[in-house]
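Let us practice reading a record.
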Amino acid sequence: MKPDVELHRRFLFAIAYRMLGSAADAEDVVQEAYIRYLAVPEAEVESPKALLGTIVTRLSLNLLDSARRRRETYVGSWLPEPIWSDADALDASSPLARWQSVSVAFLVVLEQLSPLERAVFVLHELFDYDYAEIGRVVERTPAACRQLGSRAREHLERQRPRFPPTPEAHRELVARFARSVGSGDLRGLVDLLAEDVVLDADSGGRFPGAVLAPLRGREAVAGFVASAPRLPAGPFDAAIGDINGEPALLLRGRTDAAIRVVITLEIDGGVVRAIRAMANPDKLRWLNAGRDP
């Protein structure tokens, strides 16, 4: 009799979420992987975990190819779907991988890789697969996988912050950002931002007033953020929560406490170099359905 496949759910979800940047899609992939796994004769299964990992990776690659085509017609910017920091996606092979590889900033960079580069990087760097194992999963030679992994690492290294904050400093800067926005302190807000700061918002065309293209520059970004209270669907209650392994600003509806907007800050050298706001209600369903920390 096959062992309880539920034992591997955290591992499988963690791979799928990093591959897809969507908790909902990751859940669907894991469920489909179980169905396909159960159809394999027991005598052909040497390692349930390895087989399930292979199925999840291949399903994710297929879904990523089709998702990229759909995103070409997506209204505005596309950002990863946020998750609570205690979600199953944090399951990875090292403490460093647990936190950094699930941050919104990191997932945004992963989006810039080809699907195969992404699969090789995720499996090798975050889950300790060797290149021979990865080759069997993605049906490429170990040498080809090594080359894909090298290209992916080089790209990510170019994008990585040079002076990332400590968790304490990150939380304090998010708190200062929230206070500046809440009090309308435009000068204080400007002081928190890098000169070339970028603001990206994902509303899916569902949140009137959201930017539909990246907004660049300290003055332009500060001016837009400072006017955020004018946006509809308010008023909001603001609080700091732990999202994707990092502190984030959560804007909740005052009447129902549902999360309406999630704002994450990418920090380098003590200043904010990127602001990412998720306001697409479809992408916040998984977050709102989870437990309320």
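A brief commentary: The mean pLDDT is 87.
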